[in-house]
Amino acid sequence: MTIPAAPLTPYRPRVFSGVQPTGNLHLGNYLGAIKRFVDLQDEHECVYCVVDMHAITLPQAPLELRRATREVAAAFIAAGIDPKKQIIFNQSQVSAHAELAWIFNCIARIGWLNRMTQFKEKAGKDRENASVGLYAYPTLMAADILAYRATHVPVGEDQKQHLELTRDIAQKFNFDFADRIRALGLESGEFFPLPEPLIAGPAPRVMSLRDGTKKMSKSDPSDYSRINLTDDADAIAQKVRKAKTDPEPLPGEVAGLAARPEAENLVTIFAALSGRETASILGEFGGGQFSTFKNALVDLAVEKLSPIGEEMRRLVDDASAIDAILLDGAERARALADPVLRQVREIMGFLGR
Ligand code: TYM
Q1: Active-site residue among 160, 172, 218, 244?
Q2: Are 82 and 182 in the same domain?
Q3: Which of 41, 111, 195, 280 gets the highest tally of CB atoms within 10 A of its CB?
Q4: Is 160 in the active site?
């Protein structure tokens, strides 16, 4: 007996994003992504994922991976995401991600992946020796998002190209299987949404404190290049005071920041942390000593970040509580993703239920 499949349902608005558990979470991750996850949670249904399967595209020590996974979950919660209201979980607990990634490996074209700049950066010169997973990283990312048929994805600027690839994959899937999707009851033929990247906010690209032309990054060998979310007040103060600047005082007008990447970065960080406009900050500090501005930035950064760092440390100390939150989140994530995967199997022509 064949059980008739339920008709395919249209997608609904939903937010999805992910953060890798690969070491130091920093101010760029916070301002470009995590802070914005918090802002979205009141108005939207959100799914926030610690992407441990993405982490292993580069070698990870198992015990460190566990610690870092808990730490990212702790950062989500400490920053203000409510794990009861929204879903927080780690990717490897929900097998739909890996399953859909395989299907997308068969949808995406090699030429598309060859264009990914992040692979080129991460693989470096020794490309032959990079893992196949690092190369296929973006198809797993597309699967993360589309397993929930998510419509909006808050990310920093550096993820833009991956989001474009996700849209290409969604579009090709819808196109290749349009007849089948319609035959299964979805008239629009649009099974997957083309997810919108939300790359907004004042700081979609926070730069290194040592070099205003380079992105703030977990992998920068200099710890002085970034403010980590777990840095204490002394570390924050030292890093801001040592941050590279140029010899000129701050300008009084926004146009005066052009071609001054370090000054622009610090003012952008100030704006993002304070919620103030750049023009008002320059109105207050323009023409004055850099040190006066830096002192104010230290006070602001300590005020905003120290409570998050302290709460993260407290949460990470109670590993079993974090693990319980991730387990509960994974169950709720599965309840969303498993039906999507059943529909995908039906569309593809895989037999079984
Ligand atoms: P990851 O773990 O490198 O970074 C997490 C988030 O932080 C943002 N970010 C920054 N934003 C502003 N300035 C910076 N200097 C800065 N550095 C990092 C990143 O843009 C990101 O939003 N591939 C993703 C993880 C991922 C994902 C997903 C994201 C996997 N699956 C699905 C969205 C949807 C990554 O490596 O992020």
Answers
A1: 218
A2: yes
A3: 195
A4: no
